Amino acid sequence: MRNALSTRLDAELRRIRAADLYRVRRVIDGNHGADIVVDGRRCINFCSNDYLGLAGDPRLAVAAKRALDHAGVGSGGSALISGYNAEHRALEEALADFTGRPRALLFSSGWAANLGVLRGLLRCGDAIVADELNHASLIDGGRLSGADYRRVPHRNLAAYEATLGDLAAAPGGTLSLIVSDSLFSMDGDIAELPALRRLGRRFGAPLMIDDAHGFGVLGEHGRGAVEMSSDSIPDIYVATLGKAIGAAGAFVAGDEDLIEYLVQRARSWIFSTAPPPAVAAAAHAGLRIAREEPGHRQRLHANIRQFVDGARRCGLPLGQQAGEMSSTAIQPLLTGDEARTLAMSRGLFERGYWVAAIRPPTVPRGTSRLRITLSAAHRPAQIDGLLNALGEVWEALGSESEPA
């Protein structure tokens, strides 16, 4: 006899399938770089966040193997018990130096970092002023914190100002925190960080930035979106190590008191087993490469220009919800329709190009898309091949679904 849980799960799975929102995992065999084997089929990967092409760099593997030989596989405990290894400390020191902040704290993932910060810092009576397109980890962390969650329209500075003005009359001792992605992961656009910083100073609201997709990529030295303006440095800086840096994990950077407080109160850090030392060693090697070899960023930006120029020539309607074209490694091709987006993704895969179909709830309803991402590891001929394939599937399937 079926119980209530089985009945609910069956109904929900049927609904998800009927709405063309069902997701499946594909198995990668071997390297996760630009040239990849997916479900036994060789193809070119245009949906990874490996922006600098470091995920398959052998130097990261050498660093990890060296740490494996010296420190073994598991850390054996949380960082406050027995899990804090010399590899973790060395990586944190390097991250603090690279970001120009006094301290950095290593987390197992960006999700854990954002939840740890927001739940640790905020309480009932506080408020979060957050962009509506922030990453899910910022949304969940904010809601779980117990603070008043104020959601503002995407990159709308007037809405930020009005919301902060409303909160200015809050009782003393409460905290209003501005929270935003730096580079938005589904649209490829960049937050107005200098303006947010100025609003924060005006209203006494600290600024927290999640630079997951900008760290290692944006700015002259790859220090992320905050490097693009001297007036952009946030009070709380979060970034990940599993994208441009090519490894795994995340970190929070800030002043001494912030990091020490998180050590005492960030539950997702306190009660998690520390990352394997070998992963920290690999991330340290990736950070060193990103810092010392600007050629990776230069190739990435050349690839972005080639793709955007080619898309314009082909008449492909790349763009964000506001109709602007992205100038970053994230290039969305909005289709609006879930079924057609899936069909276009399948058509590309049949032609040897892997581009993920992004559908609700990852993006708002009516804005399904192909999320095309560029890497320094892509060769010019591969980008031209993708453009040709995109033109074919768009002509066959996409033109009827251009969003209004």
UniProtKB/TrEMBL annotation:
Keywords tagged on the record: Acyltransferase, Biotin biosynthesis, Pyridoxal phosphate, Transferase
Range of residues in the leader sequence: none
Binding-site list for substrate: 23, 135, 362
Binding site residues for pyridoxal 5'-phosphate: 185, 213, 240
Uppermost EC category: transferase
Claim: Acyltransferase is one of the keywords in the record: yes
Cofactor: pyridoxal 5'-phosphate
InterPro entries assigned to the protein according to its UniProt record, in alphabetical order: Aminotrans_II_pyridoxalP_BS, Aminotransferase_I/II_large, AON_synthase_class-II, AONS_Proteobacteria, PyrdxlP-dep_Trfase, PyrdxlP-dep_Trfase_major, PyrdxlP-dep_Trfase_small
Stored Gene3D superfamilies: Aspartate Aminotransferase, domain 1 (3.90.1150.10), Type I PLP-dependent aspartate aminotransferase-like (Major domain) (3.40.640.10)
Pfam families: Aminotran_1_2
Acyltransferase as UniProt keyword: yes
Reactions it catalyzes: 6-carboxyhexanoyl-[ACP] + L-alanine + H(+) = (8S)-8-amino-7-oxononanoate + holo-[ACP] + CO2
MF (Gene Ontology): 8-amino-7-oxononanoate synthase activity
Modified residues (N6-(pyridoxal phosphate)lysine): 243
Family in the record: Belongs to the class-II pyridoxal-phosphate-dependent aminotransferase family. BioF subfamily.
Subunit description: Homodimer.
Chain's role: Catalyzes the decarboxylative condensation of pimeloyl-[acyl-carrier protein] and L-alanine to produce 8-amino-7-oxononanoate (AON), [acyl-carrier protein], and carbon dioxide.
Protein name, as recorded: 8-amino-7-oxononanoate synthase
Lineage: Bacteria, Pseudomonadati, Pseudomonadota, Gammaproteobacteria, Nevskiales
Gene (name only): bioF
